[in-house]
């Protein structure tokens, strides 16, 4: 159980922060940058949810919870030592990736195939979903870069990859099931 009774601790005043295993690292470390971007994405999902309801909102609520799981995963290095831990760290698992794929397939089933690239926009919800998509891609790139330096849960990378796809399809759903998508017209302003 987390108890936060004091918000500022002053322990980060020297430019370092603690990871989930207690190790102190620079706040600009790649690991902190990766999970910080996941946190940024979660905040943007919260903004997008201001425009949702029903099943889409329920799915996005699950995604927000998954993003906290992902942040917990990324802030805990040394995945190869998980089995030795007295308290195994929280990790993204394959079933979370599978759920995203299932939701993508369900949303995509009612959309016409794309015959052009689309521009971010249309409805306010769709615009927010595209912002979620691009920040998810950035979080994925940073996590992949982190994986070249340190151990990273492969399911975390897969989750971020599917999540950006999820937001792309959800953005189309938010544009009247793709009927109000804003199509790219190559060279239109030459």
Helices and strands, with pairings:
Layout: E1 16-18, E2 24-26, H1 30-48, H2 54-74, H3 94-108, E3 118-119, H4 124-147, H5 154-174, E4 182-183
Antiparallel strand pairs: 1-2, 3-4
Helix pairs in contact: 1-2, 1-4, 3-5, 4-5
Notes on the structure:
This protein is mostly helical and 190 residues long. The chain has one domain: Cobalamin adenosyltransferase-like (Hypothetical Protein Ta1238, Chain: A). Helix content is 53%, strand content 5%. The radius of gyration is 19 Å and the shape is elongated. The N and C termini lie far apart (59 Å). The mean pLDDT is 92.
Class computed from helices, strands and strand pairing: mainly alpha
CATH class: Mainly Alpha
CATH topology: Hypothetical Protein Ta1238, Chain: A
Which strand order do you get reading across the main beta sheet?
A: 1-2
Largest sheet: number of strands, sense, barrel closure: 2 strands, antiparallel
Brief sketch in words of this structure:
With 190 residues, this protein is mostly helical. The protein has helices at 30-48, 54-74, 94-108, 124-147, 154-174, and strands at 16-18, 24-26, 118-119, 182-183. It contains five helices and four strands.
Give a quick set of tags describing it:
cobalamin biosynthesis; Hypothetical Protein Ta1238, Chain: A; Corrinoid adenosyltransferase; ATP-binding; two-stranded antiparallel sheet; 5 helices; 53% helix; mainly alpha; 4 strands; 190 residues
């Amino acid at each position: 159980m987390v108890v936060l009774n004091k918000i500022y601790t002053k322990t980060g005043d020297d430019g370092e922060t603690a990871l989930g295993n207690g190790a102190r690292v620079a706040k600009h470390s790649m690991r902190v940058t990766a999970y910080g971007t996941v946190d940024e994405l979660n905040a943007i999902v919260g903004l997008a949810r201001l425009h949702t309801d029903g099943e889409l909102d329920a799915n996005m609520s699950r995604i927000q919870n998954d993003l906290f799981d992902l942040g917990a995963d990324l802030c805990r290095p040394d995945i190869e030592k998980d089995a030795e831990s007295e308290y195994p760290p929280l990790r993204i698992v394959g079933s979370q990736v599978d759920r995203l794929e299932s939701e993508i397939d369900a949303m995509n089933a009612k959309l016409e195939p794309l015959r052009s690239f689309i521009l971010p926009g249309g409805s306010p919800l769709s615009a927010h979903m595209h912002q979620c998509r691009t920040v998810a891609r950035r979080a994925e790139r940073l996590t992949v870069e982190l994986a070249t330096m340190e151990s990273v849960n492969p399911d975390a990378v897969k989750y971020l990859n599917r999540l950006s796809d999820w937001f792309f399809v959800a953005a189309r759903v938010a544009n009247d099931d793709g009927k109000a998508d804003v199509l790219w017209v190559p060279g239109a302003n030459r």
